[in-house]
């Protein structure tokens, strides 16, 4: 088969679900047209159709090494394949490099995923940095609460307070008000603002969701 015939046969086999035959044809196409990025990515797709995640990862990693052009979707797929093959550190590296190079658009969603991967890789400082960017780029107050909780555990009370000030700059949905007041009150208490902390914690007891914890902190203060 020449290249045109091989492409046509590949499409027919792919739509028929004959993926092993697709593999043979795509390898042939890669020999005939090594500079065509479509063949590289198509072969990875064929592997995934057969749940061959390791082969798909190896295929995309080799393509990346050979500087085959990657779209944002391809870079994200490569990162997810590293994660699926129990390599969260490698996945985080791919995702962070893609964000740094502009191959992946900066968004709260992408930085949240980066945070999760660094956390799985037990890279606490990198996870916190990614979460900080995710919170800044997202309108999800829960990300800010998660960041504040992480900063509290690391005893970064100044950072925690700044996170909560940013989170409360705009009106919050009712279901988040109690949690916000609780975290704000804790940060104020740790920074020596006793009266401000008391007000925030009292407010937290008036709204469902965090009233029990706020009551415990008030009891501690007394």
Would you give an account of this structure?
By secondary structure, the chain is mostly helical. Helices cover 77% and strands 0% of the residues. The protein contains 13 helices and no strands. The protein has helices at 3-16, 19-32, 37-49, 53-65, 72-84, 88-101, 108-120, 124-137, 141-153, 157-167, 174-190, 194-205, 211-221. Helix 8 (124-137) packs antiparallel against helix 9, helix 11 (174-190) runs parallel beside helix 13 (211-221) and helix 12 runs antiparallel to helix 13 (211-221). The longest helix is centred in the last third of the chain and has 17 residues, at 174-190. The N and C termini lie far apart (84 Å). The model has no long low-confidence stretch (mean pLDDT 92).
């Amino acid at each position: 088969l020449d290249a045109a015939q091989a492409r046509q046969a590949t499409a027919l086999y792919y739509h028929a679900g004959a993926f092993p035959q697709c593999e043979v044809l795509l390898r042939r196409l890669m020999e005939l047209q090594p500079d065509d990025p479509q063949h590289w990515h198509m072969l990875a797709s064929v592997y995934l159709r057969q749940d061959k995640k390791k082969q798909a990862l190896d295929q995309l990693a080799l393509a990346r090494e050979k500087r085959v052009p990657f779209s944002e979707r391809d870079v994200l797929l490569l990162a997810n394949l590293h994660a699926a093959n129990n390599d969260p550190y490698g996945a985080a590296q791919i995702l962070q490099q893609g964000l740094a190079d502009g191959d992946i658009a900066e968004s709260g969603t992408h930085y949240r995923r980066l945070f999760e991967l660094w956390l799985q890789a037990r890279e606490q400082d990198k996870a916190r940095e990614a979460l900080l960017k995710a919170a800044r780029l997202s309108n999800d107050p829960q990300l800010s609460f998660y960041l504040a909780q992480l900063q509290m555990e690391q005893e970064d009370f100044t950072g925690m307070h700044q996170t909560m000030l940013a989170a409360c700059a705009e009106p919050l949905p009712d279901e988040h008000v109690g949690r916000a007041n609780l975290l704000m009150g804790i940060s104020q208490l740790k920074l020596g603002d006793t009266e401000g902390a008391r007000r925030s914690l009292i407010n937290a007891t008036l709204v469902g969701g965090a009233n029990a914890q706020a009551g415990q902190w008030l009891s501690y203060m007394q």
